[in-house]
Protein backbone atom coordinates (compact mmCIF):
# COMPACT_ATOMS: atom_id res chain seq x y z
CA UNK A 1 0.00 0.00 0.00
CA UNK A 2 1.35 3.42 -0.95
CA UNK A 3 -1.55 5.84 -1.44
CA UNK A 4 -4.07 7.09 1.10
CA UNK A 5 -6.80 5.60 -1.09
CA UNK A 6 -5.23 2.15 -0.55
CA UNK A 7 -5.66 2.47 3.21
CA UNK A 8 -9.25 3.65 2.72
CA UNK A 9 -9.87 0.61 0.51
CA UNK A 10 -8.50 -1.60 3.26
CA UNK A 11 -11.06 -0.15 5.66
CA UNK A 12 -13.80 -0.74 3.08
CA UNK A 13 -12.77 -4.37 2.67
CA UNK A 14 -13.00 -4.93 6.42
CA UNK A 15 -16.64 -3.86 6.25
CA UNK A 16 -17.37 -6.04 3.21
CA UNK A 17 -15.61 -9.22 4.35
CA UNK A 18 -16.80 -9.24 7.98
CA UNK A 19 -20.04 -7.25 7.59
CA UNK A 20 -18.89 -4.69 10.14
CA UNK A 21 -21.09 -1.58 10.39
CA UNK A 22 -19.41 1.73 9.61
CA UNK A 23 -19.16 2.55 13.33
CA UNK A 24 -17.86 -0.87 14.47
CA UNK A 25 -14.94 -0.59 16.89
CA UNK A 26 -13.31 -3.68 15.33
CA UNK A 27 -12.49 -1.76 12.14
CA UNK A 28 -8.88 -0.59 11.91
CA UNK A 29 -9.21 2.92 10.41
CA UNK A 30 -7.09 4.20 7.56
CA UNK A 31 -5.34 6.74 9.81
CA UNK A 32 -4.08 3.91 12.08
CA UNK A 33 -2.93 1.88 9.08
CA UNK A 34 -0.85 4.77 7.75
CA UNK A 35 0.97 5.16 11.07
CA UNK A 36 1.34 1.39 11.49
CA UNK A 37 2.92 1.07 8.06
CA UNK A 38 5.37 3.91 8.60
CA UNK A 39 6.63 2.64 11.95
CA UNK A 40 7.52 -1.00 11.46
CA UNK A 41 4.14 -2.48 10.58
CA UNK A 42 3.42 -4.45 7.41
CA UNK A 43 0.38 -3.46 5.33
CA UNK A 44 0.01 -5.24 1.99
CA UNK A 45 -2.80 -5.24 -0.54
CA UNK A 46 -3.71 -7.62 -3.37
CA UNK A 47 -5.13 -5.95 -6.48
CA UNK A 48 -7.05 -6.92 -9.59
CA UNK A 49 -6.00 -4.06 -11.84
CA UNK A 50 -6.72 -1.06 -9.59
CA UNK A 51 -9.27 -2.80 -7.31
CA UNK A 52 -8.09 -4.04 -3.93
CA UNK A 53 -9.37 -7.59 -3.44
CA UNK A 54 -7.47 -8.59 -0.32
CA UNK A 55 -5.08 -7.34 2.34
CA UNK A 56 -2.92 -8.39 5.27
CA UNK A 57 -1.95 -6.00 8.06
CA UNK A 58 0.14 -6.33 11.21
CA UNK A 59 2.56 -4.64 13.57
CA UNK A 60 5.75 -5.24 15.54
CA UNK A 61 5.56 -6.79 18.99
CA UNK A 62 8.05 -7.87 21.64
CA UNK A 63 8.03 -10.46 24.38
CA UNK A 64 10.86 -11.77 26.52
CA UNK A 65 13.36 -9.69 24.59
CA UNK A 66 12.32 -11.18 21.22
CA UNK A 67 10.88 -9.06 18.42
CA UNK A 68 8.12 -10.63 16.36
CA UNK A 69 5.50 -9.52 13.86
CA UNK A 70 1.87 -9.84 14.90
CA UNK A 71 -0.39 -10.37 11.88
CA UNK A 72 -3.64 -8.69 12.91
CA UNK A 73 -5.93 -9.16 9.90
CA UNK A 74 -6.01 -11.10 6.64
CA UNK A 75 -9.01 -10.76 4.35
CA UNK A 76 -9.92 -11.67 0.77
CA UNK A 77 -13.16 -10.76 -1.01
CA UNK A 78 -15.44 -13.83 -1.40
CA UNK A 79 -15.26 -13.72 -5.21
CA UNK A 80 -11.46 -14.08 -5.07
CA UNK A 81 -11.18 -16.87 -2.51
CA UNK A 82 -9.74 -20.17 -3.65
CA UNK A 83 -7.38 -18.45 -6.08
CA UNK A 84 -4.31 -18.35 -3.84
CA UNK A 85 -4.69 -14.65 -2.95
CA UNK A 86 -4.51 -15.25 0.81
CA UNK A 87 -1.46 -17.49 0.69
CA UNK A 88 0.33 -15.08 -1.68
CA UNK A 89 -0.31 -12.26 0.79
CA UNK A 90 1.17 -14.35 3.63
CA UNK A 91 4.31 -15.22 1.65
CA UNK A 92 4.72 -11.54 0.79
CA UNK A 93 4.32 -10.74 4.49
CA UNK A 94 7.04 -13.31 5.23
CA UNK A 95 9.40 -11.59 2.79
CA UNK A 96 8.88 -8.24 4.52
CA UNK A 97 9.40 -9.77 7.97
CA UNK A 98 12.63 -11.47 6.88
CA UNK A 99 13.85 -8.13 5.53
CA UNK A 100 13.33 -6.76 9.06
CA UNK A 101 15.48 -9.63 10.50
CA UNK A 102 12.41 -11.13 12.18
CA UNK A 103 11.92 -14.90 12.25
CA UNK A 104 8.54 -15.19 14.02
CA UNK A 105 5.09 -14.06 12.86
CA UNK A 106 2.08 -14.83 15.04
CA UNK A 107 -1.67 -14.35 14.88
CA UNK A 108 -4.84 -15.73 16.45
CA UNK A 109 -7.56 -17.93 14.97
CA UNK A 110 -10.59 -19.88 16.14
CA UNK A 111 -9.53 -23.48 16.93
CA UNK A 112 -12.91 -24.78 15.72
CA UNK A 113 -12.79 -23.18 12.26
CA UNK A 114 -11.46 -26.03 10.13
CA UNK A 115 -10.79 -23.96 6.95
CA UNK A 116 -8.59 -21.53 8.89
CA UNK A 117 -6.78 -24.37 10.62
CA UNK A 118 -6.01 -26.07 7.32
CA UNK A 119 -4.77 -22.82 5.79
CA UNK A 120 -2.57 -21.87 8.74
CA UNK A 121 -1.08 -25.30 9.41
CA UNK A 122 -1.08 -27.11 6.06
CA UNK A 123 -0.54 -24.21 3.64
CA UNK A 124 1.76 -22.06 5.78
CA UNK A 125 3.35 -24.45 8.29
CA UNK A 126 2.31 -22.63 11.47
CA UNK A 127 2.23 -24.48 14.80
CA UNK A 128 0.47 -23.57 18.05
CA UNK A 129 0.94 -24.29 21.72
CA UNK A 130 -1.07 -21.48 23.29
CA UNK A 131 -4.82 -21.43 23.97
CA UNK A 132 -6.36 -18.02 24.77
CA UNK A 133 -9.69 -17.71 26.59
CA UNK A 134 -12.51 -15.50 25.28
CA UNK A 135 -10.15 -13.02 23.65
CA UNK A 136 -12.82 -10.65 22.31
CA UNK A 137 -15.57 -11.41 24.82
CA UNK A 138 -18.92 -12.99 24.01
CA UNK A 139 -20.49 -11.31 21.01
CA UNK A 140 -23.75 -11.62 19.07
CA UNK A 141 -21.87 -10.91 15.84
CA UNK A 142 -22.53 -13.53 13.12
CA UNK A 143 -18.75 -13.83 12.90
CA UNK A 144 -18.61 -15.24 16.44
CA UNK A 145 -21.98 -16.97 16.58
CA UNK A 146 -22.50 -16.00 20.21
CA UNK A 147 -19.71 -18.36 21.34
CA UNK A 148 -16.87 -17.47 23.71
CA UNK A 149 -14.12 -16.15 21.45
CA UNK A 150 -11.40 -18.62 22.42
CA UNK A 151 -8.39 -18.52 20.11
CA UNK A 152 -5.20 -20.35 19.23
CA UNK A 153 -2.06 -18.27 18.91
CA UNK A 154 -0.41 -19.44 15.69
CA UNK A 155 3.39 -19.35 15.63
CA UNK A 156 4.87 -19.05 12.15
CA UNK A 157 8.61 -19.66 12.39
CA UNK A 158 9.31 -18.34 8.94
CA UNK A 159 12.85 -19.74 8.59
CA UNK A 160 11.99 -23.21 9.95
CA UNK A 161 12.46 -26.25 7.67
CA UNK A 162 8.71 -26.94 7.52
CA UNK A 163 7.94 -23.40 6.33
CA UNK A 164 10.85 -23.33 3.86
CA UNK A 165 9.68 -26.64 2.38
CA UNK A 166 6.12 -25.39 2.00
CA UNK A 167 7.39 -22.23 0.30
CA UNK A 168 9.16 -24.50 -2.18
CA UNK A 169 5.88 -26.29 -2.85
CA UNK A 170 6.65 -29.45 -0.84
CA UNK A 171 3.61 -30.71 1.11
CA UNK A 172 3.78 -31.68 4.77
CA UNK A 173 3.00 -35.41 5.02
CA UNK A 174 2.47 -37.58 8.11
CA UNK A 175 1.74 -41.14 7.07
CA UNK A 176 -0.39 -43.26 9.38
CA UNK A 177 -1.88 -40.39 11.35
CA UNK A 178 -5.29 -42.12 11.30
CA UNK A 179 -3.99 -44.75 13.74
CA UNK A 180 -3.07 -42.24 16.44
CA UNK A 181 -5.14 -42.27 19.67
CA UNK A 182 -8.03 -39.80 19.81
CA UNK A 183 -8.62 -37.61 22.86
CA UNK A 184 -12.31 -36.93 22.21
CA UNK A 185 -14.46 -39.72 20.78
CA UNK A 186 -17.41 -38.40 18.76
CA UNK A 187 -20.70 -39.70 17.40
CA UNK A 188 -22.78 -38.92 14.33
CA UNK A 189 -26.06 -37.15 15.21
CA UNK A 190 -27.65 -37.93 11.86
CA UNK A 191 -28.32 -34.26 11.06
CA UNK A 192 -25.03 -33.43 9.37
CA UNK A 193 -23.22 -32.80 12.63
CA UNK A 194 -21.20 -34.77 15.15
CA UNK A 195 -21.04 -34.35 18.91
CA UNK A 196 -18.06 -34.81 21.20
CA UNK A 197 -18.60 -37.44 23.89
CA UNK A 198 -18.43 -36.48 27.58
CA UNK A 199 -15.70 -39.03 28.30
CA UNK A 200 -12.63 -37.02 27.26
CA UNK A 201 -9.29 -38.80 27.42
CA UNK A 202 -7.21 -36.14 29.15
CA UNK A 203 -4.40 -38.32 30.52
CA UNK A 204 -2.91 -39.76 27.33
CA UNK A 205 0.88 -39.71 27.23
CA UNK A 206 1.53 -40.83 23.64
CA UNK A 207 4.07 -38.98 21.52
CA UNK A 208 1.29 -37.89 19.14
CA UNK A 209 -2.48 -37.66 19.66
CA UNK A 210 -5.54 -36.52 17.72
CA UNK A 211 -8.21 -33.99 18.69
CA UNK A 212 -11.33 -33.96 16.50
CA UNK A 213 -13.06 -30.64 15.71
CA UNK A 214 -16.21 -29.86 13.70
CA UNK A 215 -15.89 -29.77 9.93
CA UNK A 216 -18.63 -27.13 9.63
CA UNK A 217 -18.63 -24.82 12.66
CA UNK A 218 -20.20 -21.83 10.88
CA UNK A 219 -23.21 -23.89 9.79
CA UNK A 220 -23.43 -25.42 13.26
CA UNK A 221 -23.49 -21.99 14.93
CA UNK A 222 -26.46 -21.05 12.76
CA UNK A 223 -28.48 -24.25 13.23
CA UNK A 224 -27.31 -25.83 16.51
CA UNK A 225 -25.80 -23.13 18.69
CA UNK A 226 -25.87 -25.23 21.89
CA UNK A 227 -24.00 -28.00 20.11
CA UNK A 228 -21.39 -25.49 18.92
CA UNK A 229 -21.05 -24.20 22.48
CA UNK A 230 -20.58 -27.77 23.74
CA UNK A 231 -17.75 -28.26 21.24
CA UNK A 232 -16.16 -25.02 22.42
CA UNK A 233 -16.19 -25.99 26.08
CA UNK A 234 -15.01 -29.57 25.58
CA UNK A 235 -12.15 -28.72 23.23
CA UNK A 236 -11.18 -25.90 25.61
CA UNK A 237 -10.68 -28.55 28.32
CA UNK A 238 -8.65 -30.70 25.94
CA UNK A 239 -6.20 -28.02 24.83
CA UNK A 240 -5.88 -26.57 28.32
CA UNK A 241 -4.96 -30.06 29.51
CA UNK A 242 -2.41 -30.95 26.85
CA UNK A 243 -0.61 -27.69 26.02
CA UNK A 244 0.80 -27.24 29.57
CA UNK A 245 2.12 -30.81 29.37
CA UNK A 246 4.37 -30.04 26.43
CA UNK A 247 2.13 -30.80 23.44
CA UNK A 248 1.69 -28.50 20.47
CA UNK A 249 -0.41 -28.60 17.30
CA UNK A 250 1.79 -29.70 14.39
CA UNK A 251 -0.73 -31.04 11.87
CA UNK A 252 -4.30 -30.80 10.63
CA UNK A 253 -5.93 -33.73 8.85
CA UNK A 254 -9.21 -34.56 7.11
CA UNK A 255 -10.78 -37.94 6.42
CA UNK A 256 -14.32 -38.95 5.45
CA UNK A 257 -15.69 -35.48 6.15
CA UNK A 258 -14.10 -35.27 9.62
CA UNK A 259 -11.30 -32.98 10.86
CA UNK A 260 -8.52 -33.56 13.37
CA UNK A 261 -5.64 -31.67 14.92
CA UNK A 262 -2.49 -33.71 15.45
CA UNK A 263 -0.70 -32.77 18.66
CA UNK A 264 2.89 -33.83 19.28
CA UNK A 265 5.14 -33.52 22.30
CA UNK A 266 7.47 -30.73 21.35
CA UNK A 267 11.18 -31.49 21.57
CA UNK A 268 12.60 -28.33 20.00
CA UNK A 269 11.55 -25.21 18.15
CA UNK A 270 9.91 -26.05 14.78
Q: What is the strand tally? A: 11
Which percent range fits the helix content? 25-40%
Computed Rg? 19 Å
Strand content: 25-35%
Which series of helices and strands comes N to C?
Answer: HHEEEHEHEEHEEEHHEE
Task: Please identify the structural class as seen in this structure.
Answer: alpha+beta
Task: Sum up the overall morphology in one term.
Answer: globular
Largest sheet: 6 strands, mixed
Distance between the termini: 32 Å
Q: What's the overall average pLDDT, rounded? A: 93
- The residue ranges in which pLDDT falls below 50 over 5 or more consecutive positions are none
Strand order of the largest sheet: 1-2-3-4-6-5
What does this structure look like?
It is a single chain. By secondary structure, the protein is an alpha+beta fold. The protein has seven helices and eleven strands. Strands 1-2-3-4-6-5 form a six-stranded mixed β-sheet, sandwiched between helices. A three-stranded antiparallel β-sheet has the order 9-11-10. Helix 1 crosses helix 2 and helix 6 (217-223) packs across helix 7. The protein starts with a helix and ends in a 5-residue tail after the last strand.
Notable traits:
alpha+beta, 270 residues, 7 helices, six-stranded mixed sheet
Amino acid sequence: MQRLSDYNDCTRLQQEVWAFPDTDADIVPASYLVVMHHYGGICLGAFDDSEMVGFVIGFLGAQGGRLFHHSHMLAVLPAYRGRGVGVDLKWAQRDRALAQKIDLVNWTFDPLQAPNASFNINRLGAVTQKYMLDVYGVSDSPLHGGLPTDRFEAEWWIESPRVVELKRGVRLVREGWEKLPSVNPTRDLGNGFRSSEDALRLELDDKEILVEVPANLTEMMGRERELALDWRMKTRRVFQSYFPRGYRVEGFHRAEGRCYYRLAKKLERP
